[in-house]
Design goal:
- The chain is α+β, with helices and mostly antiparallel strands.
- It has a single domain, classed as Beta-lactamase, CATH 3.40.710.
- It contains ten helices and nine strands.
- It is globular, with a radius of gyration of 19 Å.
């Protein structure tokens, strides 16, 4: 039996990796974000996911960006997963310090040395990378320690130690849904992210009074912020914003977070939203 050329073409299309696409209800928000970032000099990647409805929006969602210190969310998640299965404890002493203290320094103050101590105890970057892959988290790469990353020649388009915005949001979603770590560990991690002391001019800057749990990342020419924004009804939106090159990247992230917040709030709040989603 001969297979038609059309059928073969359809098979080839199905075999292609899916492009990051915004949900139909969020196309207006996608247009707002696209219009905004088009006026910026930085290369900006965005993804946001409503953790209740599953609705998503993205700009350059499948483009890899350097994670910088946002990788610390993955390091923390792996350590907490091993706490959950009894292999480790937050009271373990590592290099004369408790894991709890190291975790706090890593997430609240973005301490690079604390990160590398935890990373070494876990088995190095390969251990985190392999854990992500084993959990089918594609689009994230962990290749170097923080020290190695900082001492390497800067290349903001290097795919090592990178994540796509969509992949980072997927990691955040699976943490929040307690698919990678238990609810108790999830709550502990979010509590530390809520106390983050870095990047106050980024995701939180134009959201006064709005609860935000986040982790920043910074390199020369790169500014990142990823985490959770709480909506007025208490549910969360997972957000990843990466910006490289150009100027005024923190302001770009702040404006992006505000547009995302306002967009999700308008779309999923009656009478502006889809009535079917209000049932």
């Amino acid at each position: 039996m001969r297979i038609s050329a059309l059928f073969l073409s359809l098979l080839a299309l199905v075999a292609q990796p899916a492009a990051a696409a915004s949900s139909p209800n969020l196309l207006s928000l996608e247009q707002q974000l696209s219009s905004m970032v088009s006026t910026k000099s930085a290369d900006v990647g965005i993804a946001a996911l409503d953790l209740n409805s599953g609705e998503t929006v993205s700009i350059k969602g499948n483009t890899p960006f350097p994670m910088a210190s946002t990788v610390k969310v993955a390091v923390a998640a792996l350590y907490l997963a091993q706490v959950d299965n009894g292999r480790r404890s937050l009271d373990d002493t590592i290099n004369g310090q408790s894991a709890r203290s190291l975790m706090r320094r890593m997430l609240v103050h973005s301490d690079n040395r604390a990160t590398d101590i935890l990373l070494a105890d876990l088995g190095g970057p390969a251990a985190v990378h392999d854990w992500l892959q084993a959990n089918n988290l594609k689009g994230l790469r962990v290749d170097r320690t923080i020290s190695e990353l900082l001492h390497s020649k800067r290349d903001l388009w290097d795919h090592r130690d990178s994540s796509t915005p969509v992949a980072m949001v997927e990691l955040l979603k699976r943490i929040y849904k307690a698919e990678l770590i238990k609810p108790e560990s999830r709550n502990y991690l979010l509590d530390l992210m809520a106390q983050c002391q870095t990047g106050k001019n980024r995701m939180k800057a134009l959201l006064p009074g709005v609860p935000v749990e986040h982790k920043t990342g910074t390199l020369d020419g790169l500014t990142d912020d990823v985490g959770f924004i709480t909506m007025p009804d208490g549910h969360r939106v997972a957000v990843a914003i990466f910006a490289r090159g150009g100027t005024d990247r923190p302001r770009t992230i702040a404006e992006t977070a505000r547009v995302i917040y306002d967009g999700f709030k308008a779309i999923f709040t009656w009478p502006f939203g889809n009535p079917a989603l209000q049932k």
